[in-house]
């Protein structure tokens, strides 16, 4: 758990980024605005990531990519390939973000192989030796869809809700998973329905067939309550073995 904070840095936590080491290398799930700093803080080589899988195109989930691209271009010692997979339209949104942050630095030909893969909802896509199934979830991030991710690698299944309100699509997506990382921004229901609250999510626990549920994207109320909850909550620097 490189970063499991909300969009506003509650508790001093970094934006969303989970790094997964598998038999094939290392990939990241989401790459928020502060994620390159979080990697450096955790002494994880940004060059070692061969794949980034994005749930949706909010800044706290993909805003760190311009920094990662420029790091790979100007700082990295090797020219290892990078694949970025995410919602349809991600390449155009990333280009717009990059041009805003660092004008005239986008490359048609980067010094490393850069590939984009669009993840169509309700389809399983092979990403080399890994496979990703996505489902639409309830969270507005522009015209590009917000996705929950079911990632299968090395005989393990990791499901990530992305940011979302409650959505029944999560039930089959989570089924028989080894790990379910789930948005739980608030302790109780809020007028904004784009995030899950513990109040809503806990009513669905019996339906979530996963070996391990870990809550992420914790806002201030959840951070305060987390020590008293029976449900496992993520923290930056948390390591999970599957
Ligand atoms: Zn978020
Ligand atoms: Zn979001």
TrEMBL record:
CDD domains: metallo-hydrolase-like_MBL-fold. One of its GO terms (molecular function) is 3'-tRNA processing endoribonuclease activity. Residues 14-217 form the Metallo-beta-lactamase domain. This is Ribonuclease BN (tRNA processing enzyme). It comes from Hoeflea halophila. The lineage of its organism: Bacteria, Pseudomonadati, Pseudomonadota, Alphaproteobacteria, Hyphomicrobiales.
């Amino acid at each position: 758990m490189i970063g499991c904070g909300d969009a506003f840095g509650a508790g001093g936590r970094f934006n969303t980024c989970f790094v997964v080491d598998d038999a094939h290398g290392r990939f990241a799930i989401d790459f928020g605005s502060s994620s390159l700093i979080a990697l450096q803080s955790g002494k994880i080589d940004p060059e070692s990531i061969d794949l980034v899988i994005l749930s949706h195109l909010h800044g706290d989930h993909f805003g760190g990519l311009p920094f990662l691209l420029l790091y790979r271009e100007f700082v990295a010692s090797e020219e290892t390939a990078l694949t970025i997979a995410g919602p349809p339209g991600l390449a155009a949104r990333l280009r717009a973000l990059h041009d805003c942050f660092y004008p005239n630095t986008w490359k048609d030909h980067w010094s490393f192989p850069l590939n984009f893969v669009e993840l169509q909802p309700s389809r399983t896509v092979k990403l080399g030796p890994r496979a990703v199934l996505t489902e639409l979830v309830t969270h507005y991030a522009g015209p590009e869809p917000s996705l929950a991710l079911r990632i299968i690698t090395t005989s393990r299944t990791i499901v990530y809700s992305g940011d979302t309100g409650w959505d029944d699509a999560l039930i089959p997506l989570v089924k028989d998973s080894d790990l379910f990382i789930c948005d739980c921004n608030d302790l109780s229901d809020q007028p904004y329905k784009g995030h899950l609250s513990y109040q809503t999510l806990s009513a669905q626990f019996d339906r979530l067939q996963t070996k391990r549920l870990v809550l992420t994207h914790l806002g201030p109320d959840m951070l305060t309550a987390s020590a008293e909850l029976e449900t496992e909550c993520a923290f930056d620097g948390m390591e999970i073995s599957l």
